[in-house]
Write a structure and sequence with these properties.
Number of strands: 12
CATH superfamily of the largest domain: FAD/NAD(P)-binding domain
Shape: elongated
Number of domains: 2
Radius of gyration: 22 Å
Largest sheet: 4 strands, parallel
Structural class: alpha/beta
Order of helices and strands: EHEHHHEEEEHEHEEEHEEHH
Distance between the termini: 12 Å
Strand content: 5-15%
Helix content: 25-40%
Number of helices: 9
Length: 339
């Protein structure tokens, strides 16, 4: 039996552990703190146009795998299916799939795209709300959320017949915030014949109710991190040096070139385009071995996945797709490697 150590407690590390265990490996997870996964607002964007990525983005992590679109689609099916099954066993059921994308309202009534969402959010897909009456629940004691504004946005922006309904939770202080609702039973709404839209965090939603998406820190993110449930082992990163990965001395790349070659220009580019910094990171070969500044893979037993990879914007349309797929493949590759 092979032994695999996964460093990282986010969704990439979780999928890497699933992939390695799928291949029969003994897996240990080292995580200092939750990854960016804990900040997610309830909407998982996996991929928008796989063929377009392979055709137009040669530095994207999907393109660098050297797998055609059919093979990538199969691996995405396997990875998302394994992740959904594992999360459901931990009490977090997701709905949707990477091949289709819906639009879901957040607490401000704005539409957010997603391929996968919690089952508690799924009924709020904006296309499915057409022609339905929706009562947007507000809590009188909560000051950082305005159900009336949300209902108005749903009506004006998306044509949803939405209206606010305010409830009172007697044991909440007048200065309460949305985070104070986390884990509380959902209060009953008076509206009849309508769907009920709750701010996120309540439990025990009825059949005709759904949760809105949130801004981080989000109850959706807390639930996801709890479902991942990785025990942390002592591991510390004390610094990150510019253009150099500190643990293994690997190169950091931007647009396929070592970031160190970008110099002052790259620093100024980040002022013009904030996403530029998000596209910097490690480059890997087709087996997800990270490369050094010379383009070589110095470690045969080291694999990289998720947000550490360069070539994509991890706040964009593949924000969950890259961690899910590369984590899944990295775990499997590591489990099948032989000394």
């Amino acid at each position: 039996m092979s032994r695999v150590v996964v460093i990282g407690g986010g969704i990439a590390g979780y999928c890497a552990a699933l992939g390695a265990r799928r291949e029969g490996a003994e897996v240990s997870v080292v995580a200092r703190a939750p990854g960016a996964t804990a900040l997610y607002a309830g909407a998982m964007e996996v991929v928008d146009d796989l063929d377009s990525i392979l055709r137009t983005q040669p530095m994207h992590p999907f393109s660098r795998l050297g797998i055609d679109s059919v093979g990538l689609a199969t691996e995405l099916d396997n990875a998302t299916s394994a992740m959904r099954l594992a999360l459901e066993k931990e009490g977090l059921k997701l709905e949707g799939g990477w091949r289709a994308r819906g639009r879901y309202a957040d607490i401000h009534g704005l539409a957010r795209p997603a391929n996968l969402v919690p089952a508690t959010v799924a009924a709020g897909e904006l296309g499915a709300l057409a022609g339905r009456r929706v009562a947007v629940v507000g809590v009188a004691q909560v000051g950082d959320y305005d159900a009336a504004s949300t209902a108005l946005a749903l009506k004006e922006l998306h044509g949803v017949e939405a209206f606010p309904e305010e409830v009172t939770i007697s044991d909440l202080p007048q200065s309460a915030s949305l985070t104070d609702l986390y884990g509380r039973p959902a209060p009953a709404a008076r509206a009849r014949g309508a769907l009920i839209a709750y701010p996120p965090g309540f439990t025990g939603l009825g059949r005709d109710a759904f949760e809105l998406l949130a801004a981080p820190p989000s109850p959706h993110g807390w639930r996801l991190q709890q479902a991942i449930g990785m025990g942390a082992v002592s591991a510390h990163v004390h610094s990150f040096e510019a253009a150099r990965e500190p643990l293994f001395g690997l190169g950091v790349y931007h647009d396929g070139r070592p970031a160190a070659e970008g110099g002052v220009r790259l620093q100024h580019l980040q002022y013009i385009d904030a996403a530029a910094g998000l596209r910097s990171g490690l480059l890997t070969d087709r087996q997800l071995h990270p490369l050094d500044d010379e383009g070589n893979a110095p470690f045969a037993n080291l694999y990289a996945a998720g947000a550490v990879l360069g070539g994509y914007d991890y706040a964009g349309a593949c924000g969950f797709g890259v961690p899910i797929l590369t984590g899944w493949l990295a775990g499997r590759y590591a489990a099948k490697a032989r000394d």
